[in-house]
Design brief:
Peroxisomal Thiolase, Chain A, domain 1, 11 helices, four-stranded mixed β-sheet, globular, binds acetyl coenzyme *A, single chain, alpha/beta, 334 residues, 2 domains, five-stranded mixed β-sheet
Length: 334
């Protein structure tokens, strides 16, 4: 019998500390008005000093496991998408989260696709399940972006926040419950649009690299903005067309939460209503790989997401990478 992949649950974790625009006004030459007008962001959450990416990922994952009703012992793969891992080389954050959750002796690894990480993980989970190799996969998008942000650089420090989101993807024989389609792609031509230049094999760790602040994220904001609007719109048009759907068939459009102006431009060009577009950027900022699952968790917790509701995910990030996905929520809802 054919085996399909279904999203059984969602969970998220948001760190306690809030960094507001007025806090940032005291740190760099910026204003609440500029940040809100250019990005839609009002505040973002920042992890505590002793709180790591895996701590946040494990909390989101625990919630997703509990809500799925699937026993921990039945999870046979743990995947984490992050560009702010606990350790830049090894061990992987997925291994550390697995240990924290007491899910040992199963395959676990990280992927790096920046903001597209969670949708990339969905595509990997779908392939593992449809091939019959795995049955219950824990996928996690977790970021401590504050660990690679230069809080003296006003062009980047206003944008990012910390957090984590997770989901359980399980095998099902029901086509109705299954992930409908995923399109994922990349183009390294634009690798320098979003980059943390060090440490790595190009710039190994040393004092000069720290003095030159190469360990912090650098972004060509304006160029990224233009390409994001174009790619995100094109991506959604393509996945809807391939699946004979119209924008009006989608109750929940969940775009990557980087900038309200990008979300609005994409939503408007597709003719999406305010009710269809999920928006969390105002309170979380850009949480990279955690942004999409945190947004899905928001509509889950508010009761907007109902069992079987179709979601359209759309994301864009460093690499450059991009991806879109069409799937029903196949878990129990409030
Ligand atoms: N406060 C006040 N002024 C500022 C600030 C700030 N925080 N930041 C920049 N400015 C100034 C600039 O210095 C510039 O001044 P100038 O005209 O005197 O030179 C002016 O504002 C305009 O700067 P731009 O960079 O052109 O502003 P823009 O409208 O493009 O907005 C922003 C910047 C918000 C970063 C936008 O370009 C953006 O959101 N880009 C896309 C980000 C994104 O989607 N990233 C992808 C995912 S991230 C990932 O994968 C991890």
């Amino acid at each position: 019998m054919a085996q399909y992949a279904a999203m059984r649950s969602i969970g998220a974790y948001v760190p306690e500390k809030v960094l507001s625009n007025s806090d940032l006004e005291k740190m760099v030459d910026t204003t609440d008005e500029w940040i809100v007008k250019r990005t839609g962001i009002k505040e973002r959450h920042i992890a505590a000093k002793n709180e790591s990416t895996s701590d946040m990922g494990a909390k989101a994952a625990s919630m997703a496991i509990e809500r799925s009703g699937i026993a921990k012992e039945d999870i046979d793969l743990v995947l984490c998408a992050t560009v702010t891992p606990d350790y830049f080389n090894m061990p992987s954050t997925a291994c550390i989260i697995s240990k924290k959750l007491d899910i040992v002796n199963v395959q676990a690894f990280d992927i790096s696709a920046a903001c597209s990480g969670f949708v990339y993980l969905l595509s990997i989970a779908k392939a593992f399940i449809e091939s019959g190799m795995k049955k219950n996969i824990l996928i996690i998008g977790a970021e401590k972006f504050s660990s690679i942000v230069d809080y003296t650089d006003r062009s980047t420090c206003i944008l990012f926040g910390d957090g984590a989101g997770a989901a359980i993807i399980s095998a099902t024989s029901s086509k109705k419950e299954s992930i409908v389609d995923i399109h994922a792609s990349a183009d390294g031509t634009y690798a320098d649009f979003l980059v943390t230049p060090a440490p790595g094999s190009v710039n190994p760790a040393n004092q000069k690299m720290l003095d030159d602040k190469l360990n912090f994220v650098q972004m060509k904001g304006n160029e990224t903005f233009k390409l994001a609007v174009k790619t995100l719109t094109q991506d959604v048009v393509e996945i809807l067309e391939t699946n004979n759907l119209k924008a009006s068939d989608i109750p929940h459009f969940v775009p990557h939460q980087a900038n309200y102006r990008i979300i609005k431009a994409v939503g408007d060009s597709l003719g999406m209503t305010k009710e269809q577009v999920v928006l969390t950027v105002q309170k979380y900022g850009n949480t990279s790989a955690a942004s999409i699952p945190m947004a899905i968790n928001d509509i889950y917790e508010s009761g907007r997401l109902k069992e079987g509701d179709l979601m359209l995910l759309d994301t864009f990030g460093g690499g450059l990478t991009w991806a879109s996905a069409l799937l029903p929520f196949a878990g129990k809802t409030k």
